[in-house]
Amino acid sequence: MGDLTTLNNIGKALEKQLNRVGITTVEQLKSVGAKEAWLKIKEHDTTACINRLLELEGALQGVKKDKLSADTKTELRAFSEKIKEQRKQQRKKQRENNNNNKKKIKNEEKEEEKEEEEEKDKEVEKEENATTIEKDDTKEDSKITTTNEKDDNNNEKKRKTTEQSVEKEESSSETQVIQQQKIIKK
């Protein structure tokens, strides 16, 4: 290990934490200060509490943490509480942002669902229109078929009537011929 363990209050565990955040020498610790070093450690280890901060300040002052002055302890406790409150506010804001994002996502999902429903309704309407057109076409075809059938029926009647007329005429002509032959024979 390094020379950090030569300081009061710094054991192997605290030295590892300091090394993890880039503080590997006594000079670096003095340059950064106890508060900043504690904040860096807290970023990696959220359980780092006020005692860790007191240990770091004691190491810099060359005394055990319980030998720090009452004013220093009060100042460090106030700093610790301020940081706790800031982090609490950050978490609250993050939760609010998450909730807002969730609401935004829900609203977007609802909008997408609405658009999908509108598209489905348009498809159904198109199908209904197509069915109506088919029905209209079918009705028109039926009308045409009915008209054609009527025309066919009328044509058949005319043909029959014509045939009957022709037959009558033929019959009538035959009858006349027979009558004329009878007259001639007499």
TrEMBL record:
Domain TfoX C-terminal: 3-78
Upper lineage: Eukaryota, Amoebozoa, Evosea, Eumycetozoa, Dictyostelia
Annotated Basic and acidic residues bias: 77-88, 121-171
Location of the region described as Disordered in the Swiss-Prot/TrEMBL record: 77-186
Cross-referenced InterPro entries: TfoX-like (IPR047525), TfoX_C (IPR007077)
Acidic residues: compositionally biased ranges: 110-120
Record field: compositional bias (Low complexity): 173-186
UniProt-recorded name of the protein: TfoX C-terminal domain-containing protein
